[in-house]
Specification:
heterodimer; A: mainly alpha; Rna Polymerase Sigma Factor, Chain: A; 2 domains; B: 258 residues; alpha+beta; Phosphorylase Kinase, domain 1
Amino acid sequence: MNEAQRLVDLIPRLRRYARALVSDRASADDLVQDTLERAWAKLHLYRRGTDLRAWLFTVMHNVHVNKVRSARATDPLEDEMPELAQRAAQGDSLVVRDLDRAIARLPDEQRAVLLLVTLEEMSYDQVARALGIPIGTVMSRLSRAREKLRAMMLGQAAAKLKVVK
Amino acid sequence: MSSPITEADLQAYVDERLEAARRVEVEAWLAARPDEAERIADYRRFGAELRSLYDPVLLEPVPGTLAYVLSPGRRRWVRVAAVAAWMALGAAIGALAGWELHGERPVVAAAPDVGATMARRAAVAHATYSPEVRHPVEVGADQEAHLVAWLSKRLGAPLRAPKLEAVGYSLVGGRLLPGDTGPVAHFMYQCNRGTRVTLYVRTEAAGNRETAFRYAREGSVGVFYWVDRKMGYALSSNDISKDDLLKVANAVYQQLNP
């Protein structure tokens, strides 16, 4: 199978990762599109026989970092926790929405590690190579991401209980 | 004397990346530390929720603009169209079970049919795991006894991995999946040409009676599903014809009901 076809086959996985990484659909597909354009233009740099998926995720990571960097210059990130009480009447989807939101509130570099490990099921070593960081850093970011996510999710559960009272 | 359990061990335990011997040590360590065990269980739970939240994206149709990036010549459109067709599970799956998170389209849920929900879940699982090259299963067929014992324990029901050699398929292995109402067992089979079928098995709420075979098509994934006493089954494939899939489904049914 040639590389173009393999890239096409990887699009759904790129989209899954992007959706979790940037959380809104339009920006996620923008990210995927920019990644594919970059990958297509740089395909000659890909070494045949190596892991195309890892290479592609590295490309996506770099594109994402550049986007975030240029966005930050003009648009400081809002760090306010959105109001929870107004949504307390909703049903089951609240749980996944909260997870969605908690993921979005993780620091970028921790979120990337958590998603590559959990969604892409990359080995820690592959994550280290894809993100260009030492494996020890992968482990500490993974650990911090999980703890932060847990604190947010359990905290939200507690907040909801208060609202109900 | 084994080395002390580190945070990295615990993370690898969450991700099921530990060697069996180390896993046993970590489990023993956790058994003596309820707080840590709870923390690790939470990590696993949020991981499973994260996957069920985003895995359906894999089944959405790929926007033409994305595939077009990779097709400078019109010639490629044929292939792109094929991929798009493969991914056409889209809207139906997107509307499934409250996964329509971003409010772009109103979701009008049809009256939920338990079996149909299972068929969709099974199709998502099939589309997620059957293309995997390196990690198609959590436990391979070389440890079949362990696999079946583990999944039986988690589902709380005696399971069997049907033997499908007679219809040309051999067991690759299986994994545990999160389901609507509890853990789900997922067995993968492969024929010698590499075509895969997956069997999704879940426990049913008491009171569900037997049903006939039903067939559902989720995009390009075909699913035969049925309920038999307390178990629900769904057999999925996206490569073989409905007739061929029915042959396999019959073989599964006969194995499980000798």
